[in-house]
Specification:
The protein is α+β, with helices and mostly antiparallel strands. It contains ten helices and 18 strands. The strands form five sheets. An eight-stranded mixed sheet has the order 1-2-6-3-7-18-8-17, with helices on both faces. It has a four-stranded antiparallel sheet with strand order 12-14-10-15, with helices on one face.
Length: about 450
């Protein structure tokens, strides 16, 4: 009986301590929230494209340096030597213990913002092709950066509650999916301690602000960019019999590609092939010499990905051959060696551990298990092919009433990459900072 009473007392004391710690964290976030919202609005109004995040990375590095972190800038080597990598790595060493890496992205998108917000981006710049484009933080990386800065400040002030080495990583060029590879190619885990855990967050356009979501196992798909150049024999539109019409061949290929998913792939293995661009011809009555297709290919498992890429080439060349196109003019299928990324896999054990952390920090009603998506990003490279436990969790970013209305009417909310995507700053940032800080304190607790 005494043992039971003793255990009960210990449980009560531990529970009280946990509640007190959360209340203390809430108070710390409250004191910093106005500054974080101001930072978010400043970042939102000044986005930079992938490979050009110079001002964003400089600001990020300066903020971390001011908090006492040891900061190194311009980490990363792109395959294209013309690009400068603006990767940032910040370390805080707090005695022996685990090494935890938390990551944010830095780049924006070539999107013309239409939110009408007073702090909306009006930035215009030249892209890599030399064309003038508008730029917007349409994927919420400004939310991620600000949440990371808030988390960094909390953890710098709570050093008595954790031990080990904390790595804060600012990654460039996520939208072009070559930033993570650039940092790894530059010897990230040779120049800095190799982490025991890697964690990131990403805002969610269908989840209420104040909530977080988690997805064990595969959460995002691999992504490949594929170009198909269909070469025919052009001629007069009034005499198609004298030509080998690449437009007709292209139409057949577009339809046949869908049979790869529906007839060559198991329905238990998610896969997507989308033709996002088709260009060919110049005039009503001219059959052109060539047509160009651009595809995106998505899968979770590497075997499925490789099989689909092989099938795309087989089908394209087979249809061209059946149309009588000479072998020396067979379609050219090119899989990009820069615009590709592996699938994102959340370590199941670590994911469940984090789900417990979120539940204790935010309440069970604010923690949601989410289905995987076929979208892609390059976070998975930091796990070194799943050898380092990693998790990318979701952060609700939408006004709850808007989510409720969307569900009631069936009208979808603006998605990520939409010109209308507008996160709700205060509850989103509050939750992001609290969730990520709680995760690090749990993984590095004394």
């Amino acid at each position: 009986m005494r043992n039971r009473n003793c255990l009960t007392l210990i449980f009560v004391v531990l529970s009280a301590s946990a509640i007190q710690a959360q209340q203390s964290l809430d108070a710390m976030i409250d004191r910093n929230l106005a500054s974080l919202v101001a930072t978010y609005k400043t970042l939102h109004a000044a986005p930079e494209l992938s490979h050009h995040e110079e001002k964003t990375s400089t600001f990020f590095a300066a903020q971390l340096r001011g908090m006492g972190y040891e900061v190194t800038e311009r980490i990363g080597k792109y395959e294209n030597p013309a690009f400068t990598s603006y990767g940032v790595v910040a370390l805080m060493k707090n005695g022996p213990g685990p090494v935890v890496l938390i990551r944010t992205e830095l780049d924006g998108l070539p999107v013309n913002e239409k939110t009408g917000l007073p702090y909306a981006s009006t930035v215009k710049t030249k892209n890599e092709a030399g064309d003038e484009v508008s730029v917007m933080h349409a994927c919420g990386h400004d939310v991620h950066i600000t949440s990371m800065l808030g988390t960094a400040k909390m953890l710098a002030e709570l050093k008595d509650q954790w031990h080990g080495t904390l790595i804060i990583l600012g990654q460039p060029a996520e939208e072009t999916v070559d930033g993570a590879r650039a940092m790894m190619r530059d010897g990230l885990y040779q120049k800095f301690p190799k982490p025991d855990f890697v964690v990131a967050l990403h805002d969610h356009s269908d989840l209420e602000a104040g909530k977080v979501g988690y997805t064990p196992g595969y959460s995002l798909a691999s992504g490949d960019s594929v170009d198909i150049k269909i070469r025919g024999v052009g001629g007069h539109g009034a005499a198609p019999e004298t030509t080998k019409d690449p437009i007709v061949v292209a139409a057949e290929i577009v339809l046949a590609l869908q049979t790869i998913v529906s007839r060559e792939n198991s329905p238990l293995d998610p896969a997507v092939i989308t033709v996002g661009s088709i260009h060919g011809g110049s005039k009503h009555n001219i059959i052109p010499d060539e047509v160009n297709l651009q595809l995106t290919v998505r899968a979770y498992r590497e075997e499925v990905r490789k099989r689909m890429l092989a099938s795309i080439e087989r089908i394209a060349k087979g249809i061209a051959l059946a149309a009588g196109i000479p072998a020396d003019r067979a379609p050219i299928v090119t899989v990009s060696n820069t615009m590709f990324t592996a699938a994102t896999y959340n370590d199941p054990a670590l994911t469940e551990r984090l789900a417990g952390v979120f539940t204790r920090a935010l309440g069970a009603e604010n923690v949601v298990k989410l289905p995987p998506l076929m979208a892609s990003e390059d976070f998975g490279y930091f796990s070194m092919d799943k050898t380092i436990p990693s998790v990318d969790f979701s952060l609700g970013a939408v006004e709850p009433e808007k989510v409720k209305q969307s569900k009631a009417t069936g009208i979808p909310l603006p998605s990520l990459h939409s010109a209308l995507f507008a996160p709700l700053p205060e509850p989103t940032l509050r939750t992001g900072v609290k969730a990520m800080t709680s995760v690090v304190l749990d993984l590095m607790k004394k």
